[in-house]
Specification:
By secondary structure, this protein is an alpha/beta fold. Helix content is 34%, strand content 13%. The chain has one domain. It starts with 6 loop residues before the first strand and ends with a helix. Pfam families: Aldo_ket_red.
Length: 104
């Protein structure tokens, strides 16, 4: 059973974003990471925070794919993933490739 996490409407849309996110920074990344993400989803988390400098972007994506496969969430539209661009990618000509790497 999920936990009630407060949400805030996004502008003039009907969609709301959870005000509490699940942080995914972890050093070193280990095998239990995916299970923690899946457990967070079972508890009601739908907002996940990561960054290009964390080793968790790809494993987070894999865990969310698994959550969809298991039916823990009905669609990707239920999820919010926030990330941060790394400093080395914040220069002209590097922003778009840096964001594409994150979205991959």
């Amino acid at each position: 059973m999920g936990t009630a996490i407060p949400e805030e409407p996004l502008g003039s849309t009907e969609k709301s974003i959870p005000l509490v996110g699940f942080g995914t920074v972890e050093y070193p990344l280990n095998e239990a990471f995916k299970e923690r993400v899946l457990h967070a989803i079972k508890l009601g988390y739908r907002h996940f925070d990561t960054a290009a400098s964390y080793p968790s972007e790809q494993p987070l994506g894999e865990a969310l794919t698994e959550a969809l496969r298991l039916g823990l969430v009905k669609s990707r539209d239920e999820l919010f993933i926030t990330s941060k661009l790394w400093l080395t990618d914040s220069y002209y000509g590097r922003v778009i490739p840096g964001l594409q790497k994150t979205l991959k």
